Task: structure prediction
Amino acid sequence: MSNLCTDKVVGDILAGWRYDISSLAPEMRGDYEQHLAECAHCRSHQFGHRAIDIGLMIVASVSAVMFLVAFGAVRHYSPRHALVLELIALAGCLFFSVVWLIVAVATPAPVVVADVARIHARKIHDRLPSQIRERLPEGTQEFLKSDHS
Ligand SMILES: [Zn+2]
Result:
């Protein structure tokens, strides 16, 4: 995996955006999408960045839940210094919720997750018999059709 970027100029621009082109207008995106398709170097970097974003969100979610569970445990067993422990647990939960929010707002991770969900939902949808498909709520249909990946 030590291959170099095939187009340094485009590669540098992509690196500046952390390989995130999800916020670009579709007509501007073409060249960059093509480069990502052709350049293994940039593609692997893009994958790495998205893996970090999604990994961070998972870690933050798990940590927030753990602190929430700790808070519940302190409430349930009410040991000595219960108030201090409760405050620590709440602060931890709040901290990781904020981390989660920052990652979600600052990175395209939610877009990536939504796209993956959409692709899978579409596959399942295509396999459904048409009688069931017609009965799906309109919101679902819109979600499956919308194509701003
Ligand atoms: Zn490249």
Residues 40-77 form the longest helix (38 residues). The chain has a mean pLDDT of 86. DSSP finds seven helices and no strands in the chain.
